[in-house]
Design a protein that fits this description.
The complex is a heterodimer of chains A (184) and B (606).
Chain A: E1 2-6, H1 15-24, E2 30-34, H2 35-38, H3 46-54, E3 58-65, H4 72-81, E4 104-111, H5 113-116, H6 122-125, H7 128-136, E5 140-141, E6 145-147, H8 153-179
Parallel strand pairs in A: 1-2, 1-3, 3-4, 4-5, 4-6
Helix pairs in contact in A: 1-8
Chain B: H1 5-25, H2 30-41, H3 53-72, H4 76-81, H5 83-107, H6 112-123, H7 127-137, H8 143-169, H9 180-208, H10 211-232, H11 236-247, H12 253-278, H13 281-286, H14 288-312, H15 317-327, H16 332-343, H17 349-388, H18 391-394, E1 398-401, H19 405-415, E2 422-425, H20 428-436, E3 440-443, H21 449-454, E4 462-465, H22 470-483, E5 488-493, H23 496-504, E6 509-512, H24 515-528, H25 533-560, H26 563-591
Parallel strand pairs in B: 1-2, 1-4, 2-3, 4-5, 5-6
Helix pairs in contact in B: 1-2, 2-12, 3-11, 3-12, 5-6, 5-8, 5-14, 7-8, 8-15, 8-16, 9-10, 9-11, 10-11, 14-15, 14-17, 15-17, 16-17, 24-25, 25-26
Classes of the chains: A alpha/beta (184), B mainly alpha (606).
Chain lengths: 184, 606
């Protein structure tokens, strides 16, 4: 199973995202969860989410970026679900735990160009906190898919295609691993 | 001098209007006010109540209307749920009281048969008085109230065989004839028409008739039942009650209730006045020693017996006395019984008059005793904390006044997080149930200083006022403000107008009882229409904020401006806020992550 966590407060208005999600929604084994639909009040069912993540071999975060930051609910999700003593750190019996160890961690995002054009180095550093999270939790960092800002429908179609290709690569990588008896 | 009915009616109404507000002003209560008005009109006063037969009929209509409207509040299901209270508890009350009083009269030297008769007659209580007293104190829904009501219902049923019995033992000319078959047929007829025909009739009139025709039909219904029942010798009240129960599940229930309400109140007032007028002041003044002794004996004995019954019924100790007082007077049926017995020579004329006087006086004493009971309850509450409280609880930081649906949700949230609130409620049933769940529930009314004190208001930090009645909420607020200014008050408001009231009284935390629930469901409607969950939440949040903004603004205007301006301004501000709301809700998704060219046209609706 692949968990696709989508976080956009106004998903219905985000056309590019809708096209992208439409392109992949019937992907075999893909579990799409729209966080703003599930938890509009920011009260997250942590136990359920952890269970879902444990059963996934890959975790995709799909979100719009503003000022280099994910939407508030996604941050809340990362704080609540990727808990100490479960995703990293030590459990009650002082054993090290990494419940998400070995899972692939892929970010799919777009940023507003006008917010970042001043500093070319910015794009390189933007993913640092999430990369650190993947490292601490023992997850396999995948090269993020950074989409351009939506300006017309051609870009949206291209974005959907890029997303589909990325997912294909991810899936075959997972298959390869499970074939060699490596992944969970 | 012969006066027509209308003149009498005018005199009675005038007496009502003059005397009752005065009685209320001096804290005597409405019932006592009517009785006093009656005495003033009676032979001892202005002696203008001489020809009271017609008025008496109207007065009886008041009682019948009352029973009808009680019936309206109880559909068959609720009535079935009350069956134990009516038949078991009710019979217990009648048997115990009748036996006790009969033994006492026998010991006074009356004959065996007469003792039984008087015992039974005086075991009955006045439905009108008891229910009026209960309504004044909002006791109808409580365990005590329901037990009293059950007993009253059974008494109404017992009165029928009693009337028959008397007319058999002592036949007389004006005995209302009771024929078993026609009576049964009449009751069946009421049940059948009430069940099938009247619903259609109401529909028909509501559809084709006018508003006043509906009132007319409602009155016709009640008077019709009353006449029918009187002809066959069944208690008219009982018939009306049955008719009411049958219509309780009809969609016209509230309409009927509202339409009959003013008639009920007025005619019931007339009823009490006629009782007042029938008090034979002359006999009272000549035989006052004997009468006061008998009255003391009768009321004392009946209260004692009823207190015992209340104990058996497992009514909570502080409420037993109020059960006794509510049922502790003579019944309006007893007047009829006494009249029958006198006519049938079972009683001598003097004995009949004495009995009449005794019943009337016991009815007059009832409201006074109820006041006494209030005072007694206050003292009881004062003593309770020492006997009945563990220290841990009386310093609970939170007191919740009123433990209905509103207070319970709040209380459960607190309890589930380890905070045990002190709860005040006036329903002993609620108290028993909630105590099982670990709440510390007190019997009492938060508008009384001593009750709040007993609940630990001096140590508490927060008082939540979750009662459902506006008057009661305000009373509790002003009481708490006056005696426990350190308490943070959190009040439930009925609506915006009440919210303003509470703000003016200085309450800072006010929640409109339906606002949040409606808003939440409105939000769900938006999502069902296809809007995103979060977007709908945001719109609801924004609506809430705008609503509060409007309320704040209007409060200022309300304090400064006159009514006309207020309404105009309210309209303006509402429109302005509406525009603002619409603008913002359109913009929010589009401004997110910069303005996309495609969504600029505003056609995007998700």
């Amino acid at each position: 199973m692949i968990s696709l966590l989508y976080a956009h407060p106004y998903a219905h208005h985000a056309r590019m995202d809708q096209m992208m999600l439409n392109a992949v929604q019937h992907w075999p084994g893909l579990e799409l969860r729209e966080l703003y639909q599930l938890y509009p009040d920011f009260y997250i069912d942590v136990a359920l989410e952890q269970k879902m993540l444990v059963h996934s071999s890959a975790i995709i975060l799909h979100y719009p970026m503003q000022w280099g930051l994910p939407p508030a609910l996604l941050v809340q999700y990362l704080h609540k679900v990727f808990q100490y003593g479960w995703a990293y750190g030590k459990d009650a019996s002082a054993q090290s735990v990494m419940s998400l160890k070995g899972k692939k961690f892929w970010l799919v995002t777009n940023a507003v160009a006008s917010q970042h054009e001043l500093d070319p180095c910015y794009l390189q550093t933007m993913f640092t906190p999430l990369r650190q999270l993947a490292l601490s939790c023992g997850m396999e960092w995948q090269q993020p898919l950074m989409l351009p800002e939506l300006t017309d429908s051609i870009i949206a179609t291209q974005a959907a295609e890029l997303f589909r290709q990325g997912l294909e690569q991810l899936s075959s990588a997972i298959e390869l691993q499970s074939g060699s008896g490596y992944a969970s | 001098m012969h006066l027509n009915v209308l003149t009498y009616l005018m005199i009675y109404l005038a007496a009502m209007v003059l005397v009752v507000p005065l009685a209320k002003r001096f804290g005597l209560g409405v019932v006592l006010g009517y009785l006093l008005a009656g005495i003033a009109l009676g032979p001892a006063g202005f002696a203008i109540a001489s020809n009271t037969d017609d008025i008496k009929l109207l007065a009886e209509l008041g009682v019948v209307l009352m029973l009808f409207s009680i019936g309206l509040e109880l559909d068959a299901k609720k009535l079935w749920a009350m069956r134990h209270r009516v038949f078991l508890f009710g019979s217990l009350q009648v048997v115990v009281c009748a036996l006790g009083i009969a033994i006492a009269t026998f010991l006074l030297g009356l004959s065996y048969a007469l003792s039984v008769f008087i015992g039974l007659a005086l075991a009955l209580s006045s439905t009108a008085v008891a229910i009026q007293l209960m309504k004044d104190r909002n006791l109808m829904g409580t365990h005590t109230g329901q037990s009293v009501f059950g007993a009253l219902l059974l008494q109404d049923m017992v009165a029928i065989p009693l009337l028959i019995g008397v007319s058999l033992i002592a036949p007389s000319a004006d005995t209302a004839e009771f024929k078993a078959l026609p009576a049964l047929a009449a009751v069946v007829a009421v049940v059948l028409t009430g069940r099938y025909l009247i619903g259609y009739l109401l529909h028909w009139v509501a559809h084709y008739g006018s508003r006043e025709l509906f009132v007319g039909l409602a009155l016709l219904l009640v008077i019709g039942v009353m006449e029918l029942m009187t002809v066959v010798g069944v208690s008219a009240g009982l018939g009306a009650f049955i008719a009411g129960v049958l219509l309780a599940s009809s969609e016209f229930r509230h309409q009927l209730e509202a339409d009959l309400e003013p008639f009920k109140g007025l005619f019931l007032g007339l009823f009490f006045i006629t009782i007042g007028a029938s008090i034979n002041m002359q006999l009272l003044s000549t035989e006052w020693q004997l009468i006061s002794m008998l009255l003391l004996l009768f009321v004392g004995l009946k209260l004692l017996l009823l207190y015992g019954v209340a104990r058996i019924l497992k009514i909570a100790a502080p409420e037993r006395f109020s059960y006794a007082v509510l049922l502790g007077q003579g019944s309006e049926f007893a007047f009829v019984l006494a009249a029958l017995a006198t006519a049938g020579a079972l009683l001598s004329a003097t004995e009949g008059a004495l009995l009449n006087l005794l019943i009337a006086l016991s009815i007059a004493v009832s409201p006074l005793l109820m006041k006494l009971q209030d005072a007694w309850a206050v003292r009881q509450q004062n003593q309770q904390p020492e006997q009945n409280t563990d220290v841990e609880n009386s310093d609970s930081p939170v007191i919740i006044a009123g433990f209905g649906r509103y207070g319970q949700i709040l209380g459960r949230l607190l309890l589930s997080n380890g905070i045990v609130p002190t709860v005040l409620d006036h329903d002993s049933d609620t108290i028993q149930t909630m105590t099982k769940f670990g709440f510390k529930v007190y019997y009492g009314d938060g508008s009384r200083m001593d009750v709040l004190e007993a609940a630990g208001a001096a140590q508490a930090k927060i008082l939540v006022i979750a009662v459902d009645d506006v008057q009661a909420i305000n009373a509790i607020v002003s009481n708490a403000k006056q005696h426990f200014p350190h308490l943070t008050l959190m009040a439930r408001a009925k609506d915006v107008a009440h919210m303003y009231q509470l703000r003016q009284m200085g309450v800072q935390h006010i929640e409109r009882e339906l606002f949040e629930a409606s808003l939440r469901q409105g939000r769900d409607v938006l999502t069902q229409l296809g809007m995103g969950q979060y977007e709908a939440k945001e719109l609801a949040d924004r609506f809430r904020a705008a609503n509060y903004q409007l309320i704040d603004k209007m409060q200022l205007v309300r304090q400064q401006q006159d009514e006309k301006n207020y309404i105009q301004l309210l309209k303006q501000s509402r429109e302005e806020l509406q525009r603002q709301l619409e603008r913002e809700s359109r913009d929010a998704p589009q401004r997110y992550q910069g303005v996309h060219p495609e969504t600029k046209d505003g056609k995007n609706t998700g």
